[in-house]
Design brief:
Layout: E1 2-4, E2 7-10, E3 18-21, E4 26-32, E5 41-45, E6 47-50, E7 57-62, H1 63-68, E8 75-78, E9 83-89, E10 94-100, E11 105-113
Parallel strand pairs: 3-11
Antiparallel strand pairs: 1-2, 2-7, 4-9, 5-10, 6-7, 8-9, 10-11
């Protein structure tokens, strides 16, 4: 995780996780979790920021975005093998990030309507 000022920068260029969804824009993410851990995942839409000096653009979010604009899970299920499935309804296609506030890890996702 890289921060610049108050922006948490997410490397979307290496995003290999694509969520292809229908027009309902429901995205389901499956991940392995430790049954003993207290998981806390948030989904947040990434914003494109442009560096005024270098003119380079980056995608990221702020901690304020996590508080004010995070998308609440529509449904969460964990099976006996420790696989958690989290469903979110997103407002539009684009870049999003699943943020684990316990581990401070980010999983970038590119949501595509098809």
């Amino acid at each position: 995780m890289k921060e610049a000022g108050n922006i948490i920068i997410v490397d979307v260029d290496s995003t290999t996780t694509k969520a292809i969804t229908d027009s309902k824009l429901t995205v389901t993410i499956a991940m392995k979790v430790d049954s003993q851990s207290n998981t806390n995942f948030s989904l947040v839409r990434l914003t494109k920021y442009v560096d005024k000096k270098s003119k380079n653009s980056v995608y990221g979010f702020t901690y304020e975005d996590l508080v004010k604009n995070c998308i609440i899970a529509d449904k969460t299920e964990t099976n006996s093998k420790g696989t958690m499935q989290i469903s979110y309804v997103v407002p539009e296609e684009g870049y999003y990030a699943v943020y684990d506030s316990n581990d401070k890890t980010i999983i970038p996702i590119w949501v595509i309507i098809q």
